[in-house]
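A further point concerns the way the authors explain their paired sequence and structure data. The central task, working out the structure tokens from the amino acid sequence alone, is never made concrete. I therefore recommend that a typical entry be quoted early in the introduction. An entry of this sort, consisting of the sequence and the corresponding backbone structure tokens, reads as follows:
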Amino acid sequence: MNSTDMLRQIRWKCRRGMLELDLMLSRLVDRHGQAMSDAELQTLMQLLECEDDQLWDWMTGRGQPEDSRMKQLVQQIRAID
């Protein structure tokens, strides 16, 4: 799968059951998606496989992923204003 197809799929997966998550995840893709490496996009795909309640805990700082790549991505998402 090429980067453009992966970004299209990621944009679709950013549509969550919680508006706040939609906005946070979509901002990352809109602002940094084109510049992300294939490895970073793959990590984002993995992150998007997680449940909304777990993602929300990570985004609000009530928890963090064990995987270091996902942890770094969550920090990047949280830093976007």
Notes: DSSP finds five helices and no strands in the chain.
